[in-house]
Design brief:
The complex is a heterodimer of chains A (280) and B (257). Chain A folds into 2 domains: 11-54, no CATH class; 55-272, 2-enoyl-CoA Hydratase, Chain A, domain 1 (Alpha-Beta Complex). In chain A, 34% of the residues lie in helices and 17% in strands. In chain A, the strands form 2 sheets. A 7-stranded mixed sheet of chain A has the order 3-4-5-6-7-8-9, with helices on both faces. Chain A is α/β, with parallel strands linked by helices. Chain A has 9 helices and 9 strands. By secondary structure, chain B is α/β, with parallel strands linked by helices. Chain B has a single domain, classed as 2-enoyl-CoA Hydratase, Chain A, domain 1 (Alpha-Beta Complex), CATH 3.90.226. In chain B, strands 1, 2, 3, 4, 5, 6, 7 and 8 form an 8-stranded mixed sheet that branches. In chain B, helix 1 (7-15) crosses helix 9, helix 4 (84-99) packs parallel to helix 6 and helix 8 packs across helix 9 (191-198). Chain B is globular. Classes of the chains: A alpha/beta (280), B alpha/beta (257). Chains A and B meet through helix 4, helix 5, helix 6 and helix 7 of A and helix 5, helix 6, helix 7, helix 8 and helix 12 of B. The complex binds zinc ion (ZN). Zinc ion binds at residues 29, 31-32, 34, 47, 49-50, 52 of chain A. Zinc ion is lined by residues 29, 31-32, 34, 47, 49-50, 52 of chain A.
Chain lengths: 280, 257
């Protein structure tokens, strides 16, 4: 039987894709395995061969997609009920590495004349897992934007559930879904941008609940982990079965947008959903 | 209550072959039940049973995730692991219930959503996400009952009702204790320790405010009758509320997490 519905890609694959990439002038793409000069990654951090977007910290992502950004709930932390020493150490390390309080950075952003709620998950923070404080921050972002009649743009990146918080992690899916539903009922726009990797409970809730669902090229998107599927069906799934391109083909993404075009694309979508449509 | 069982013994009890099947439970609860099939898009998942039945005097929509009684049935039903088609069928029937102002009873016994290549291609994540998004806003009374295993997002998909109950011998968790032990200690044999840590028993979950009520295990006509009575009473209470009241209480229930 399946071990877990929330298992991320193997830790080997993950470490390969993020922190272990050496800071040398040569870089290798984890998707197409091409090597190239570091400077070819450019400002956006994209593989010159296949367009895969190397993983970004939340703050970097915010810089790439917004002109201004005012963070909210920056002090919100995992509830005190979680006292396991190993978990607390993990949280402390993640905070140190990311300079974030939790696995998502939320706030109110501005690009040109467009004002919007912006949330960016950070896969460096315990694999972008969905902790209670992550859930609370995202819920509050939607609630604030419902109140202030603002659209929401959310960049997802997650290995799924926060194991150390057990069932409380699962409940975040319900709590956030409710806030998304209320924001939607109010007639407001929600755009999700699924970034590498978006898996498990995040895929099974707010990543897939947006009005418009975008992704970057070559992004890993799925519900169950590859290993769990392999153990269940006793076969190796196709290499690209959980890539953005496959999801697009099967009808679960609206569009794949190269990283360099995301800012202008998002600004356009925000404009089109404003009262008065095209007004700049 | 069998609180003398260890957490892992409770896991085993939840999985026991003698556990009442969802179909038997539906037949026992409903005077008449007609199953409906299909998600109106791609297929009909045998792991999900759905339809209309008479609970006492009134028609209710019942949806359930069902394991098999034998190997052939278990293979067809993926041992109670629903596919996207199953979640879409459940959601279709639940929104139909809303249209006809019919209450909903969800009966859950699943180790989790089915992990398969086709399930991924057909949008397992999306299907569960829609069950949550729409389920939380349904304008009719919605009772969720975990009868055996309540495994992660695949169980949560049907467990966002106005009230969530658990059978005495059932468990509800983010993943199986075997999976938890494998990830944390790289040793699935430590599942008993994992079960203790995870707080997956009805008592632990009730104390944590995750569920609202523990139902004595249904093993005979008397225990079935008392479960049925509990359902009818709760439905009556929920139906006495206005729609805004119902939705605001449901909202408060999930906002607290
Ligand atoms: Zn590449």
């Amino acid at each position: 039987m399946p071990l877990s519905k929330f298992t991320a890609p193997t830790s080997k694959e993950i470490s390969f894709r993020m922190d272990k990439i050496p800071d040398h002038i040569w870089r290798q793409c984890p998707i197409c395995h091409q090597s190239f000069y570091e400077k070819k990654l450019g400002q956006a951090g994209v593989c010159p061969e296949c367009g895969y977007g190397f993983r970004l910290g939340a703050q970097k992502r915010v810089e790439q997609v917004a002109d201004q950004f005012k963070p909210i709930d920056v002090d919100l932390k995992a509830p005190a009920q979680f006292q396991d020493a190993k978990y607390l150490a993990k949280l402390a390390k993640a905070r140190q590495v990311t300079e974030l309080n939790e696995s998502v950075l939320t706030g109110i952003a501005r690009t040109g004349k467009q004002c919007f709620g912006l949330g960016v998950m950070d896969s460096r923070f315990i694999m972008g897992s969905l902790g209670s404080a992550t859930g609370e921050k995202i819920t509050r972002l939607f609630e604030k934007c419902t109140q202030e009649k603002l659209p929401v743009i959310l960049f997802t990146a997650s290995g799924g559930a926060r194991m150390q918080e057990g069932i409380h992690s699962l409940m975040q899916m319900a709590k956030i879904s409710q806030a998304v539903a209320e924001h939607s009922v109010a007639g407001l726009l929600y755009v999700a941008v699924l970034t590498d990797p978006t898996t498990g409970g995040v895929t099974a809730s707010y990543a897939m609940q947006a009005d418009i669902i975008l992704s970057e090229p070559r992004t890993l998107i799925g519900f169950a982990g590859r290993r769990v599927i392999e153990q269940t069906i006793h076969q190796k799934p196709p290499v690209d079965f959980q890539r953005a391109e496959t999801l697009l083909k099967h009808g679960f993404l609206d569009a794949i947008v190269p990283r360099a075009e995301l800012k202008t694309t998002l600004a356009k979508l925000l404009r089109w959903h404003q009262k008065g449509g095209q007004a700049e | 209550m069998s609180s003398s069982l260890t957490a892992y013994e409770r896991v085993l009890a939840a999985r026991k072959a003698s556990k009442i099947s969802i179909q038997t439970l539906i037949n026992g609860l409903c005077d008449d039940f007609m199953a409906f099939h299909g998600d109106r898009a791609a297929g009909d998942d045998p792991a999900v049973i759905g339809g209309i039945g008479l609970l006492g005097e009134q028609p209710v929509t019942v949806v359930g995730i069902q394991k098999g009684d034998d190997l052939a049935e278990n293979n067809a039903r993926h041992f109670g692991c629903a596919e996207p088609e199953g979640y879409r069928k459940a959601l279709r029937l639940m929104t139909q219930a809303e249209k006809f102002q019919r209450p909903i009873v969800a009966l859950i016994n699943t180790p989790g959503a089915f992990p398969g290549v086709d399930a991924e291609y057909h949008g397992q994540g999306s299907a569960i996400a829609q069950c949550l998004l729409t389920g939380l806003k349904l304008k009719v009374p919605y009772i969720s009952v975990i009868v055996g295993e309540g495994g992660s997002g695949g169980a949560l998909a049907l467990a966002v009702g106005d009230t969530v109950w658990m059978f005495e011998n059932s468990v509800y968790s983010i993943l199986s204790p075997e999976g938890y032990a494998t990830i944390l200690w790289k040793d699935s044999r430590k599942a008993p320790e994992a079960a203790e840590q995870m707080g997956l028993t009805p008592e632990a979950l009730k104390a944590a405010g995750i569920i609202d009520r523990i139902i004595p295990e249904v093993i005979d006509a008397a225990s079935l009758a008392s479960f049925k009575q509990a359902l009818c009473q709760k439905l009556q209470q929920l139906q006495a509320q206005s729609v805004p009241e119902l939705l605001s209480e449901r909202r408060a229930r999930y906002r607290q997490f």
